[in-house]
Amino acid sequence: MVTVRRSIWHEPRPAGAPPIGRLDWLLVGVLAAAALVEGLVRPGLAWRPLVTVLALALMPTLLWRRRRPLMAALVGWGVAGLLSVLQLTANAEDLGLYSMMAVLILLYSLVRWGSGREMVLGTVFVTVVVALGMYASSAVWVDVLGGSVLLMLFVALAAVFRYRADLVHRQQREIRNQERVALARELHDTVAHHVSAIAVQAQAGGVVAGTHPEKAAEVLAAIESEASRTLAEMRSMVRLLREEEAVAYSPQLGVADLPALARADTTPTVEVSLDGSLTGLARPVDAALYRLAQESLTNAIRHARSATRVGIDVRREGNAVRLRVSDDGHIEPGPASQPGFGLLGMAERAQILGGSLSAGPGPEGGWVVEAVLPVEVLA
């Protein structure tokens, strides 16, 4: 209980309070007109001019009920308390306008938009004013019960809308975090692959320039092509991050695009093998298989020492698809290092889809990455 009280006391104001709009001005105008008409025509109203002026002075507080909820509640309910004191002093039976029920809106706004401190202080003040008013009007227990239920109803409604909005805000923030992680993973996979290809072509170009200068133009053209593709995909991702609306984004690649990764004119050579029925895969699985193979190939090109071959093998096994990427390089002994963003992103891809991923030295040397993903993804 102590912890709950402390958490309420330190709770900040909710974010996203709307500014003053036309509806707010309309509300104030309608209530002010109602208070003026009621003050003029209501029979048997004691202290008519003073009560009418106080009711009219109360209405502008509705305009700052979101920006300064505690101040608005103190002023509004303070006016109601002042009328209760006057009623008690003058021993009057009826002192107040029905239009002053607008203070209930101030109570709602206090709980909906106030901080924890403001809520506690404001509700204590409102409770004192309500108790004073009931005492001044000599209310019977039925009126006390009905008034208390009405006040608690407004407080409960404000609390429900407050915490519902907070829940929606948290869900949106979680969705944005997931989207950022997915985009970071996509950016890493795409750029790392293309940059690695550029680096390999540049290394080959250094050798070719000395022995076969006539082939240097082909190497430069390949480097230019990879750089252009990298730049185009990066621009698409940047637009996706900067703009809220959907942007034109290149279609996601899949298993059918894996043969394009095969290379026989570079070292290491890349061989792609597709076995079994690999059509009809769920789109997330299809895209994940391509990205996993692409990232594994990138890692092999960058880290496999003296590798001459990288094999990419995808095969259907019942209701699952197995991806295996292996190379014939060797691992230099050294201290164990933490896995980088590549392996982390690959493991996340597999886990999100309900699959598994393993990476480590192969039984015959080299490095092996294996991923098993379900053919269908449960919604």
From TrEMBL:
The keyword Kinase applies. It catalyses: ATP + protein L-histidine = ADP + protein N-phospho-L-histidine. Pfam families: HATPase_c, HisKA_3. GO terms for cellular component: membrane. Residues 288-376 form the Histidine kinase/HSP90-like ATPase domain. Residues 179-244 form the Signal transduction histidine kinase subgroup 3 dimerisation and phosphoacceptor domain. Coiled coil: none annotated. The chain crosses the membrane at residues 21-40, 46-63, 70-89, 95-113, 120-138, 144-163. Its EC number is 2.7.13.3. InterPro entries: HATPase_C_sf, HATPase_dom, Sensor_HK_TwoCompSys, Sig_transdc_His_kin_sub3_dim/P. Keywords: ATP-binding, Kinase, Membrane, Nucleotide-binding, Phosphoprotein, Transferase, Transmembrane, Transmembrane helix, Two-component regulatory system. GO terms for molecular function: ATP binding; phosphorelay sensor kinase activity; protein dimerization activity. It is an enzyme of class 2 (transferase). This is histidine kinase. It comes from Occultella aeris. The gene is desK_5.
